[in-house]
Specification:
Elements (H helix, E strand, L loop, with lengths): L1 H10 L6 H14 L9 H6 L6 H6 L15 H22 L12 E5 L8 E6 L1
Antiparallel strand pairs: 1-2
Helix pairs in contact: 1-2
Length: 127
Amino acid sequence: MRTITNLLKVESNKSSAWPNHLWKVQLVLNTTKHKTTGCSPFKLIFGLEGQTPQIRTILADLLTPESTKSPEDPRKVLQKLKMNAEHERAAFNRKRRDTLCVKVGDFVLLSRGQSPEKFGCEILHSW
């Protein structure tokens, strides 16, 4: 949602004109290659990279091998997603800290939340 909001802010000068620019934002999101899948959503669904109407009219007489290709095999996409998830999990786990080992009688610093609704406390570190 934040991406869409930011793109609309960049694209439209007036706050009331955002519906006129929504198609551009949708085109950008549908044709942008995603980190997780390595493909754009358009390519995953239709099997070829999305093109703007201007590009399509220029290249209308040329037939590329990519344009006749069928959509990507869902098993390959699933395998890419699993490999990417494992890579992200490993990267996240490398940055994790070890758990604190607190014994009975140790002094610890408790942090209370900023809002009065938060009743719990967190142990920040051994003192």
